Amino acid sequence: MTEAPTPFTPYLSQLSHSFEQLHTAKEDAFWCSYMGLDADVEGARKTLQEREIAVQRWIQSPERLAEVRGKLALAEAARTDPQRAVDRASQMELIALQGWVAALEANSIETAEARSQAEHIVELESELAKARGGMKLGYQGPDGFVPASSVKLGVMLRSEPREELRKAAFHGLRSIETHVLDHGFLELVKQRNRLGRMLGGEDYYDATVRRVEGLTKVQIFEWLDQLEELTRGAAQRGIEQLRQRGDTGLPWNLPYEISGDVTTAEDPYFPFSQALGRWGRSFAALGVDYNGAELVLDLIDRPGKYENGFMHGPVPAWRDSGRYRPARIQFTANAIPGMIGSGRRATETLFHEGGHAAHFANIDMPAPCFAQEFAPTSVAFAEVQSMFFDSLVSDADWQTRYAHTAAGQPMPFDLMQRAIQAKQPYEAWRIRSMLTVPYVERALYEMSDSELTPENVLAVMRQIEEKLTLAPGGGPRPVLSIPHLLAGESSAYYHGYVLAEMGVVQTREFFQQRDGRLVDNPAIGPDLKKVYWTPGNSRRFGEFIETLTGEPFSPEPLGRQVNRTVETTLAEAERSIEHLQDVPVFDGEVDLKANLRVMHGTAIVAGGEGKPFAETSRQFAAWIDERIAENG
Ligand SMILES: [Zn+2]
């Protein structure tokens, strides 16, 4: 149904379409450059840079903000004035104007000086990305240097049985730090701080979170400090237990000592080829669909491709004068078929990015500003959607139902028991390991220009890593090797994952208490759609969590979860498996209401317009098995 036009209709339509056009052009260039689709790498990067500047100019324009504020004031005045009934905006148009004011306020830069500073920063980021992309990355093997992506080095830390290779992989990751410190990272930090102060923040971190989350740095770190306290004792007990077992607790051994062994044992229950099918069936059983969206997936690692999974939306979902326009959403992962642990990682990535995609595909608001993934869209809230779904893959009831070998053998309980025994003592440690990133970033942006030397920065990073991860000499994941800190759109951002962990556990607790289960619970999709997804960024993080769960947002549910003993955790897992007999198996046709396509670079691997999901997942499975045969 379309709405009758008002005096505001042409203006709003022009506003929405001009933004959407720039946004789509930029996101398509982003995909092209980050997926390495163009042989002309330099040219692709340059196109992206130009289009990014064009979008930024549009969304940061103070003139546009003044204009939209003026329209909103007119619409609000007309709303109550009987003399001006013909000048009224529709209810949806009023909401659209409010959304545009919020979006422009979160992005607009008032002074010309700050605007040119922002553009200068985009150039510095692009130079740094180029230096990082061109880096000779890998590890020293017994027969010399072996090139490897940061993803591969990370996987080696978790699952490589030979200590000397893990140590080599760890030093490979650390080499990223010295490389970026030598190639302009600190200059970027200084210039970002200058911009942050121009925008009225204490520093870049503070200015960014005010705009993105509508929160101050102080508020965020109050929650993080509480969480740090809630996890301290349990993390120390975990490390103590490790030492008693005779493990070293050294940074290149910790991830392996904690998880390596179980990863290998679990591997047969996560055949890579089944990952896509499990995602589709599980999401369908939860009542999740994609509202007619086009989904493009590029899941396998290859040289020249960006080294971190992400989702982005070149076409935001929105309602154009009452007519719904579905989203186009693309997501990527860096799975390496055949490598131990890669099938599980691929499954988790599909659940994670598929959760993001479900969120953005189900936004139903009267302008595209509500459904784009940048400010004022909360990063932390977006991560609740993705991490809620990837958390299911670790649940005993989900594993019993879905994690079967290629021959159909379900994962036995004693393996889950081993996983819980191996992981639960270190859950608090894992949260603290994540906390290293926001604490390091906060420290970086709080250093003065003269303090920002490579020596100081390395010393501060090691100190924070050591305090939080309790690993001598620094944490297993060198903070500066994490790509988020370098790129503009993901810097001062990582606390979002931690706030999201808190939001996920609070959301899980809510469904668990209300419905008794998460796995194949068909109420979850519709409830998330109604409360978390439909409103887009028209609400703030805490408001969403409280509306669904009925409780204010708090670090305590997560604190409780990571402090559970192994015995309690095992008892809960057993109960959830017993409960499975009352949970109907979803054996209907999987229809995600999506036009799904799996790509490998420019080649189509599976799916396409009108293809049933079952066929797409069969094509995907066959393609993966071929890759494994080639690699093996
Ligand atoms: Zn995510």
TrEMBL record:
One of its GO terms (biological process) is proteolysis. GO terms for molecular function: metal ion binding; metalloendopeptidase activity. Residues 157-561 form the Peptidase M3A/M3B catalytic domain. Keywords: Hydrolase, Metal-binding, Metalloprotease, Protease, Zinc. The keyword Metal-binding applies. Gene3D superfamilies: Collagenase (Catalytic Domain), Neurolysin, domain 3. Its cofactor is Zn(2+). The keyword Metal-binding applies. Binds 1 zinc ion. Belongs to the peptidase M3 family. PANTHER family: PROTEASE M3 THIMET OLIGOPEPTIDASE-RELATED (PTHR11804), SACCHAROLYSIN (PTHR11804:SF84). This is Peptidase family M3. It comes from Lignipirellula cremea.
